[in-house]
Amino acid sequence: MDAVQNSGWCISSALVIKTFNKYGPSSSCRHDGEGGVWANQVYLLKGYVSIGCYKDTSCRAIPTLEGKDSILDGSYSQRRDPIAKWAVAAMRAGYRMFAVENDGWCASSVIAPMIFAKYGTSTACKHDGEGGPWANHVYCVMR
């Protein structure tokens, strides 16, 4: 479970399933799916599963959605919680797969499941789950 508040602040924790309704429902959420001032838009994701690490090139294996969903705020290299934010963005777009590259750059598309392995596997992903240089850490959204 993840929550988005006030135009893109994204949070999650192991206890969120027990605490998300602590203050009750709110009518302050805007219709953009990004909560409101002191109001969380709550998303129930069954989770996402790591598929593995795959090569990328300047001719991208998976197209980006950077700049197309406001939850993907600021510079990708400075983004907090890029994996959780991208899971929400992919879910909102109706996509079943997403990739994180080089500490937060994100990619997804409706055809990602058919093209993510275009350049083969890679060993360049870091252990933080956020990909690496020219390496996509690919995830599948569980619904």
Structure description:
The protein folds into two domains: 2-43, no CATH class; 48-141, no CATH class. It is elongated. The N and C termini lie close together (12 Å). The protein is an alpha+beta fold and 143 residues long. The relative contact order is 0.22. Helix content is 14%, strand content 26%. The chain is built from three helices and seven strands, in the order E-E-H-E-E-H-E-E-H-E. It has a four-stranded antiparallel beta sheet, with helices on one face. The chain has a three-stranded antiparallel beta sheet with strand order 2-1-3, covered by helices on one side. The model has no long low-confidence stretch (mean pLDDT 86). The chain has helices at residues 16-19, 82-93, 112-115, and strands spanning 2-5, 9-11, 40-43, 47-55, 97-101, 105-108, 135-142. A hairpin with a 3-residue loop joins strand 5 and strand 6 (105-108).
- What form results from the Cα inertia axes? elongated
Structure classification: alpha+beta
Approximate helicity band:
10-25%
Into how many domains do the coordinates divide?
2
Question: Compute the gyration radius: what is it?
Answer: 15 Å
Catalogue the unreliable spans.
none
Count of individual beta strands: 7
Order of helices and strands: EEHEEHEEHE
Gap from first CA to last CA: 12 Å
Q: What percentage of amino acids are in beta strands?
A: 25-35%
Largest beta-sheet details: 4 strands, antiparallel
Q: Give the spatial strand order of the biggest sheet.
A: 4-7-5-6
Tell me, rounded to a whole number, the average pLDDT. Answer: 86
Query: So how many helices?
Result: 3
